[in-house]
Write a structure and sequence with these properties.
307 residues; mainly alpha; Serine Threonine Protein Phosphatase 5, Tetratricopeptide repeat; 19 helices; 47% helix; elongated
């Protein structure tokens, strides 16, 4: 006669979750520990649309009360389950970081620390990148304390400082200064954190990068565009003012001879044009093919995008 108790641990439900998955998902510690004593239970078994183990499911919980369940699962499975990715390419640590669960992260990082900190999601983000995207400075501190590189790069070639600069997160940028992160690393598009700050309109971050990190304000893109071109392209007058204050030249053209005022005129950024004119730019300055900002404004010439 079939003994149901013996097969319950791996009995799959309609959504492909087994009993161990369900008990882990709902933090039923007593049930999890009971199931782990049964012969044949498979902690590596996956379920759900994301093909997750019970370890993935419990690591995704936002409450720290399930840490004892995680510890029991890890002891039953062995340390290598920490490196098992789910159907979306995420190991348990990445899920715990996304949930903001510090106690789960500490438990997971108790062994195979370096391997987990270097592991990346399908889009290339490591645990530190995910923590920065969440603006979770406490989690960032934990990961750095456990030894992750502050200059680790994701699939786009970006460091955590790139992301903090793009998001305008002043608190995190200051933190990265304190742990000596580099502001000179370029991503896969040859952009530094300074480029991303200018592109996204964060004048305060430009000032921090220039003053604290001593980041260069004279960086150019592949087409010769300056940071002023980038701020002008995106209509960020406050960034243009900050760049001018820090010493970026108004009159520097890109490889096609286009100045920042031509770029601003092409995209109709009146505030930028007013700022540039107030600082001494000439309204009749021409590009290499003799187009003025007036003609750019009328769409008769299109300067290239800064690369």
């Amino acid at each position: 006669m079939l003994n149901l108790q013996q097969i319950v641990p791996n009995l799959f439900l309609q959504d492909n979750y087994n009993v161990l998955h369900i008990s882990a998902m709902y933090s039923r510690e007593d049930v999890v520990k009971l199931l782990l004593t049964k012969k044949g239970v498979d902690v590596y078994s996956t379920g759900g649309s994301r093909n997750q183990t019970a370890v993935h499911l419990v690591a995704s919980r936002q409450t720290g009360t399930a840490t004892a369940i995680l510890r029991a699962l890890l002891q039953a499975a062995g340390k290598d389950i920490r490196l098992k990715a789910d159907g979306k390419g995420k190991i348990p640590l990445l899920l715990a970081v996304e949930a903001g669960n510090q106690s789960m992260c500490r438990e997971l990082l108790s062994t195979l620390t370096s391997e987990q900190l270097k592991a990346a999601s399908a889009n290339g983000d490591t645990a530190l990148h995910l923590a920065v995207r969440r603006k979770d400075i406490d989690m960032v501190r934990i990961l750095v304390d456990y030894g992750t590189s502050v200059d680790i790069r994701n699939g786009e070639g970006q460091t955590p400082l790139h992301i903090a600069a793009a998001e305008g997160d002043e608190l995190l940028v200051k933190y990265f200064y304190g742990v000596r992160a580099s502001a000179s690393v370029t991503d896969n598009q040859d952009r530094t954190p300074m480029h991303l700050a200018a592109e996204n309109g964060h004048a305060n971050i430009i000032e921090l990068l220039a003053d604290k990190f001593k980041a260069s304000i004279f960086e150019r893109t592949k087409d010769g565009s300056t940071l002023m071109h980038i701020a002008s392209l995106n209509g960020h007058a406050d960034c243009a003012m900050m760049l001018f204050k820090k010493g970026v030249y108004l009159h520097m053209p890109n490889k096609d001879g286009a100045r920042s005022i031509h770029t601003a005129a092409r995209y109709g950024h009146v505030g930028i044009i007013n700022t540039l004119l107030q600082k001494g730019e000439k309204v009749d300055v021409t590009t290499n093919v003799s187009f003025t900002s007036e003609l750019c404004r009328d769409n008769l010439w299109a300067p290239p995008f800064p690369e």
